[in-house]
Amino acid sequence: MMIGKETGEKIKYDLIVIGAGPGGYEAAIKAAHLGKKVALVEKDMVGGACLNRGCIPTKALMHTTHLLEEMRSCGELGLDVKEVGVDFEAMHERKKDVVKQLRDGIAQLLKANKIDFFQGRAVIKSSGKVAVLQQEKLIPPSEEAETALDADTLNAVHSSSTHEEMLHADNILIATGSVPARPPIQGLELPGVVSSNEILEGEGRKFSHLAIIGGGVIGVELACVYAALGTEVTILEAAGQILPDMEKELSRSLAMSLKKKGIVIHTAAQVNRVEQVNQMEQIEQAEQVNQIESVASMHSSDYFIKAKSVECDKENIQKQLRRDEGNAQKKLQCNEENTQEQTKCDEKHFLNVAFEVKGKEMNLRADGVLVATGRKVNIAGILDCDSDGGSLIETDRDGIVTDENFQASAAGIYAVGDAVSGNIRLAHVASAQGIRAVCRMFGVDSGIDMNYVPACIYTSPELATVGLSLEQAKQKGLPAKESKFLMTANGKSVISRQGRSFIKVVYEEESHRILGAAMLCARATDMISEFALAAAKGLTLEDMASVIRPHPTYAEGITEAVEAGLGGAIHAAPTR
Questions:
Q1: Is residue 388 domain-shared with residue 517, that is, in the same domain?
Q2: Pair (33, 144) in one structural domain
Q3: What does the alpha-carbon distance between residue 432 and residue 417 come to, in Å, rounded to a whole number?
Q4: pTM above 0.85, yes or no
Q5: How many domains does the chain have?
Q6: Residue 389 has what pLDDT?
């Protein structure tokens, strides 16, 4: 138990929060706002997976690559840019700067709200009792603390410490999030097979050809990043469409956009295994000498050989590739150009992904494989056993079982976010649930409606949905209809050279009450909140149409979409 700095009295907390991701740190701050004494325990870094290896670094990279794509076609705008290059290292440095700035901001908020932060692994011993193992870092509770605190000091790890601190509280909130899931596919332990963690942390990873197992949100977003950087990208999705949880029109429209970027998509693809193949073996299998160019470039992001003449003797090229480090740096004969960035070509391996589509086995060669098959609950090791040797709280294979108030099966223990069984695994869901759970445990009404959760995908164009689709509404027996506006008639969309894009609204046939919306257009992830508010507050098409939206903006498309349900959008041909 923590000892008070001056008085020596033992401190008991009103709330101990385990996990400093969006669900955890926002809940801790909310409890502090309610005047409660709060401890926050985190074994890694504040901000959780979302900030450090998820949402934020992904969007930082996507912002860069969106600009890159714009610049490559800026001649259409009358701009004369001779050459656009990519500094991979600088791109990831900027990503790290963004993450650190936000992480430092959270650290300062914790300090300002007098939240005691403990660095270490939490183990719930019983209701109201949490052990912090190995490391701890405490934000001094008194205002007399003089040390300036940034994210680096907040997250300092003292490996020599094996101290165990026992904390006590009336309430415990578990917000430990999730980690990348790995399906039982042979070969996923091989070098070159990575999860989103390895892609997004640190200096990033370069690839010439990236195979992505999984066509969900993580898969399609990172596919866009790498395709913009010039990487050959292939998505392998087990379901019949990418983004399996989205309605078909959205999935198909986005798939068309991805294919235009050069991304290859295989749906209904069952991955059987990943194999490591030596470079020389691949060369021996090549049927033509000019295939060596693509093979060698596939093996390394740093070293590649451009074969200028197919008349070169195959045996001579093989000998050149087997030479030692010194010879690898020399010019190859037969008019080849050698970048000389990779010096041990003969030691390099690449990967073969064996998969089936409609019973036909296919093979895909790549120098990197990203496993993007979703995430799994991260609660391993945080629950001690009860007196009978069982779990302290009820769990299933998908997480912690809670009631509508986010309370687990043991009194005083709550869980939110990705740690909860059957939950929607989104950062803003965890944040809302954390705040709502804190309000419930301390008898305050949060006012948050959890029935309408926006889902966003930050591709180009962006994709966002909220509420019910037309099909879902009909499955619930609701007399629903749908209106739609094509954004190709929207002035801002034309100015910014947007392609196929639209806004759809689902509403009750008689009352015109908004039930949901889907947007595939620029700034969809920002504008979807307008429909979330409308659905949550029971607004109608007439209510939505009564608002004047500025011109020219993307938001004008919202007016057009709801007007389409009231008799016809202004900038659309009349329906017959």
A1: no
A2: yes
A3: 9
A4: no
A5: 3
A6: 54
